[in-house]
Amino acid sequence: LKNAYGAVLDETFDLRIREPNRLANARAIFIRSGHSLAPSAVELPYVLEETAMNIVRGEEMPIILVHDEERSPEKEYYLNARLAFEGNDSDLAIARSLGIELKPSRRLALSNEDVLQIAQFGNYGGYETSERLLDWVVSRQRRWGTPIPVLLSEDDEHEHAVCLSDEQLPALPVSSGHPQRVPCDRLPGGFGVPEKDTLDTFFDSSWYYLRYLDPNNEKQLIGADKLAQMPVDVYVGGIEHAAVHMFFARFISYFLKDIGVVASSEPFGRLLPQGIVRGRTFLRTDNGKYVPETDVVQKGSSFVEKCDGGEVIVQYEKMSKSKRNGVEPLLILNRDGIDLTRLQLLDTAAPRAPINWGDADVKGLKKWLDRVSWVVNEYVTQRSVCASCASIPAEVDHATEERYREVYNYAVRNPFQELESIHQSDLLTHYDPKLSIIVAADASEYGIGAVIQHRMPNGSVKAVAHASRALTAAEQNYSQIEKEGLALTYAVTKFRKMVFGRHFTLLTDYRPLLGIFGSKEDVPKHAAKRLHRWATLLLAYDFTIEYRKTSDFGQTDALSSLISKQRKPEDYYFNVLFCISNGICYTFCPLYRPQSNGQAERFVDTFKRTILKLRREGSVSEIMDIFLRTYRTTPNAFLAEHRTPAELFLDRPPRTSLDLLKFHRSSLPNANSSLIAVTVPVPDSSRFSTPSTHGIAKGKIGDLEKSRNESAASCIKYRWQTEQLRDSTSVSCANASHSKSLC
């Protein structure tokens, strides 16, 4: 910013724009009355004395105070400021009335990335930020919070504020409150009044996580050796509490990074937010008011209010007093106990998902707790019995001990020794996350092989699992380095569940891969695209790659030649065999396959609108039954013969409640006929583009036909099949009186 005399001010103009390339050809800035630079009691539009320097063009831009306009895509204000847009007629009119030209004399064709690089190079910004993030208040009017070390002037007409000096810190409150006057030469009058507000408690708890690592260090905030353990791997907390807490913690961490205390700006590597607990809410459909559960009664599948019978919808929302869906914790604890309540919270949903209170199977959880309690009580009982054995006579005790020893040797010791000998053999060992992990992979001309191993405490290496597969025709044309890289990628992804999140050693007999997969800073640019992609994939794993001679690499070299015949994963292969042997048709996707993203989005939009319209029809399960039944029984224009999805999937018409309808035998014109074609007049049937499925009984849907009688309306032909008659002859009954004989 510059003042009216052209002097550069020690202040910057915070401008946030969605399309940075507009700054390359901007000539003016519009602000609204809420901006900090906006003067009061001036005639609008008004040109401020201050100007802003365009960091791209190097030109001064006037700052214009305009009326508070309505929001629009061309007039999108962030922090009450925006760039004047030359393509907007109102912006051009305002600028011309003030004698300001918005069109640049020379247009610059720069992209968003170009403008961001210019801003970052000059340290003017150029980073993504929030469009809604404004100045926030961190002070609270409380006495017991963290003091704010600021002195305020006693003169109300000239407000001044200065920070306390280092000698005056810490500014802790005394029991009688803050002192009224503090000597200060930097304030008018030589005295100041301490700030009485305190910092928010979220601010208090946002910095001392560093002290947890080094609590006994009285000379430093945190030692260098302890600081190497930062940042925190995972932050687990409530989704609302963690959001505010991390907001302050990240702010302080960035500040500590700027002053050189910490090396990383981000204090937490990953956030695991826990879902909020939601209660069952009862909402009136007519006036939108919330009703307590005690005032609601259920009638069938719907709910109504007791007082006037008004319809009420049930949904789960965040617990709140205004929504009247809160739960008294003491009542729950007294009824179920603390263990069952905690277990209910853990069992209801995943950590990130919201918890709908009351959906958990309390009976099943209670039964599980009873079993655990029985095991513990039985263990305590047996221990007490063993403790009382000291009073048994020595002779009886000796005989009992010999008997128990004989049984123990036969039933426990001998089998255990046999299992231990098998475990010490050259067979596979069980996976143990406490042992070090070794993953080896090799490639041959026709296949790739991999093995995951454990280094045992005695120094020996034992295999946990083996894997191999054949190379496809395209993979056989890879170069040798690409085949070896494919083998390493296959091994790591194959054993992902055992190696992800743990450090392991990756072995290869191809030395050039050490420089490609061994770099943890960045993937070498000289690597081929395929190797570059694999190396990028392996950056998510923590491993150390090492070289082994081919002569010492027999465990994987043999596997690369003794390959499995199937090229797809073993789980998929055995699932296919199981389905073939049991006559199961393996369906991979829905019958309706959208041909574009637009069709998929329209299907989702239709689904949401349908569910919203049916919200008064019953519970969620009943609504889903209605929607799925309608979808499965509706003819699809994209399917052959306009068949329904149920017909395509089951190879027969869907069964409905109309299947129970039977013909009265007296209404049949011919006892030898098996099919009755009933013609039912339908007014204005031209509205139907496909046969309707509403009211269909057993059989297939007929095509739409026009009646031969000119006075008759269009009709829909239904075929009704009876169980008593088997003949294939069909009789057309044009007389509508036959439809009256249906029962």
From TrEMBL:
The keyword Ligase applies. GO terms for molecular function: ATP binding; endonuclease activity; hydrolase activity; leucine-tRNA ligase activity; nucleic acid binding; RNA-directed DNA polymerase activity. It comes from the Eukaryota. Keywords: Aminoacyl-tRNA synthetase, ATP-binding, Endonuclease, Hydrolase, Ligase, Nuclease, Nucleotide-binding, Nucleotidyltransferase, Protein biosynthesis, RNA-directed DNA polymerase, Transferase. The keyword Nucleotidyltransferase applies. One of its GO terms (cellular component) is mitochondrion. The lineage of its organism: Eukaryota, Metazoa, Ecdysozoa, Nematoda, Chromadorea. This is leucine--tRNA ligase. CDD domains: RNase_HI_RT_Ty3. The gene is leuS. Residues 432-541 form the Reverse transcriptase RNase H-like domain. Belongs to the class-I aminoacyl-tRNA synthetase family. It is an enzyme of class 6 (ligase). Residues 134-278 form the Aminoacyl-tRNA synthetase class Ia domain. One of its GO terms (biological process) is leucyl-tRNA aminoacylation. Its EC number is 6.1.1.4. InterPro entries: aa-tRNA-synth_Ia, DNA/RNA_pol_sf, Leu-tRNA-ligase, RNaseH-like_sf, RNaseH_sf, Rossmann-like_a/b/a_fold, RT_RNaseH.
